[in-house]
Specification:
The complex is a heterodimer of chains A (about 450) and B (about 130). Chain A is mainly β and about 450 residues long. Chain A has two helices and 32 strands. The longest helix of chain A has 6 residues. The radius of gyration of chain B is 27 Å and the shape is flat. The chains are: A mainly beta (about 450), B mainly alpha (about 130).
């Protein structure tokens, strides 16, 4: 288990990650609302969406290749921004409902407009993002400034003509899927049938049709009859990328259940149960907490799935339930810091993970604005940092190394010097190219592979 | 090597009296010489002992229902509209009390008013990512 990079300058897969862009304010004082809470590329990778704690969504669009400006090729610039969710207070239950965007998921593009689902703790919204670059002029019944004309004064008729206008990108909420979750929504996942999607909270998973907002089907319910008997909660859920009847959900006890919707209407009984056997003698107070899965993602191929727990990332073969086929240590040096991490609540941080387009590499975040990349083919891993210091255009990222022992080398950082407030919880990998988006608190970093 | 090839799991590497009990009945704090020896080799168990030393009353079942229920109750604020309206009606004949200069915990005997609850306003400012 290596804590840092190997001999290769920037990790396996012959990646040479370079800084491309950074978005967001530079100042040290971070407003709570500006903290990025989700990052997601769309299916083509041309659009990149972020959601924040203030309930806002910002969408970036990749610039097309332009001969006159060769360096702006592949740059992401603001395309649209809107307020998706607002804070609410449920007076009946004395519950404050945060506007924080927990997840954004894009729908596959079917026409000129783009659609995405965004959710906070309680309500999922379908947003339509469309372009308008033409405007009609020459109406009969109203003036150019919109004032209505007196119909009796009109002596001649004309046909309105379409004139080009400056591109305007509009976002409008098309569906609001509300009142289906008693607990807090942690996941949404669009089905491969492009008609349905699931939403999961701590105890239940619901199936929706994108066209129908007043009804949803409950497909998983793990709420015990007596809440005193509650031992685990649902932490993440996702539909299989190709099999529209299959989905998985992970739990706070480190287990994953695969369910087949063809077997029964209520999928409380799983079809497959994935759990790694544990040595009972190594069990500690922290064991269950650090085994809690914070994210589960299918590979693009649909053959594997990846889970993220506090200290590691595991790759599972869907055909083998008994144990993962790969385990990658993210920051094993934290195992001897669990007491402090429990006291400052960091042990409950929920890290996400992602695959690259070809499923040959995986990425996840850590502390001190570090993020880790694992090459599944070469078995090499690297630690990189998202920082303003290494933000020169096209500057290569230098691998970072955390020193665990006594002797610290010049460019290494000791475990005790790590900044646990600088967490990288959300990362995204372009579906095809080697472009990655890394959310560092209130800043969004975009890195590209030099060879790209 | 970052990827660990899974080996055949041996569930009972250390046969001892402790491992004969189902894990839920095993003590969570080291109280035997064997477990204390584990402390030296296992950083996790060392951290557990540290935590137990600081918080001796920490529950036996760490992942149990108390912990989970706290998670499920996220966002709970104490405001009873019935109490509030009753108090408002009573106060019509009395002098209105001045609002406390600092916002204190709103629970118990004090009837909370909407002014006591921290104001949640939507972000009127555009995201700095779009700037």
């Amino acid at each position: 288990m290596a804590a840092g990079g190997g001999g290769c300058p920037a990790g396996g897969n012959d990646f040479q990650w370079c800084f491309s862009q950074v978005k967001g304010a530079i100042d040290e004082d971070v407003a709570e609302a500006d903290i990025i809470s989700t990052v997601e590329f769309n299916y083509s990778g041309d659009l990149l969406a972020t959601g924040d704690k203030g309930g806002r969504v910002v969408i970036f669009q990749r610039e097309q290749e332009n001969k006159s400006r060769p360096h702006s090729r592949g740059e992401y610039n603001v395309y649209s921004t809107f307020q998706s969710h607002e804070p609410e207070f449920d007076y009946l239950k004395s519950l404050e409902i945060e506007e924080k965007i927990n997840k954004i998921r894009w729908l596959p593009q079917q026409n000129a407009a783009h659609f995405l689902l965004s959710t906070n703790d309680k309500t999922i919204k379908l947003w339509k993002i469309s372009e308008r670059d033409k405007r009609a002029e020459g109406y009969n019944l109203k003036d150019e400034d919109g004032r209505l004309r007196d119909p009796f004064r009109i002596t001649a008729l004309r046909v309105p003509i379409l004139k080009p206008m400056d591109l305007m990108v509009e976002a409008s909420p098309r569906r609001i899927f509300a009142n289906a979750h008693t607990y807090h929504i942690n996941s949404i996942s669009v089905n491969s049938d492009h008609e349905t999607y699931l939403s999961a909270d701590d105890l239940r998973i619901n199936l929706w049709h994108l066209e129908i907002t007043d009804r949803s089907f409950n497909i998983v319910d793990i709420k015990p009859a007596n809440m005193e008997e509650l031992t685990e909660v649902i932490t993440a859920a996702e539909f299989h990328p190709h099999q529209c009847n299959v989905f998985v959900y992970s739990s706070s006890k480190g287990t994953i259940r695969l369910c087949d919707m063809r077997s029964s209407a209520l999928c409380d009984r799983h079809s497959k149960f994935f759990e790694e056997p544990e040595d009972p003698s190594s069990r500690s107070f922290f064991s269950e907490i650090i085994s809690s899965i914070s994210d589960v993602k299918f590979s693009h191929s649909g053959r594997y799935m990846m889970t993220r727990d506090y200290l590691s990332v595991k790759v599972w073969d869907l055909n083998m339930e008994s144990r993962p086929v790969e385990t990658h240590q993210v920051h094993e040096y934290l195992r001897s810091k669990l007491c402090s991490l429990y006291e400052n609540d960091c042990i409950f941080d929920k890290f996400e993970c992602c695959w690259n387009g070809s499923d040959s590499a995986i990425m996840t975040g850590s502390y001190n604005n570090f993020f880790r990349m694992f090459d599944r083919d070469t078995r090499r891993d690297v630690t990189l940092e998202a920082s303003r210091e290494s933000s020169k255009p096209r500057a290569s990222l230098k691998p970072r190394k955390v020193c665990t022992g006594g002797k610290r080398r010049k460019d290494e950082i000791s475990v005790d010097s790590l900044d646990f407030n600088k967490k990288i919880l959300h990362t995204a990998w372009h579906p095809v190219d080697n472009v990655i988006a890394v959310a560092a608190t209130n800043n969004l970093y975009i890195f590209q592979d030099k060879i790209n | 090597m970052s990827a660990e090839v899974p080996e055949a799991a041996s569930a009972e590497e250390q046969k001892s009296e402790h491992n004969m009990l189902p894990w839920s009945l095993q003590p969570s704090i080291p109280n035997s010489l064997e477990e204390m020896e584990d402390k030296v080799t296992s950083p996790e168990k060392a951290e557990e002992a540290k935590l137990k030393a600081r918080y001796p009353h920490l529950g036996q079942k760490p992942g149990g229902s108390d912990f989970l229920r706290k998670r499920l109750q996220k966002g709970q604020k104490y405001f009873d509209s019935g109490d509030y309206n009753m108090a408002k009606a009573k106060m019509k004949n009395k002098q209105l009390p001045t609002a406390a200069p600092d916002k204190t915990e709103v629970t118990g005997d004090h009837i909370p008013t909407p002014q006591d609850l921290p104001q949640r306003k939507p972000s009127l400012v555009a995201s700095k990512l779009a700037g």
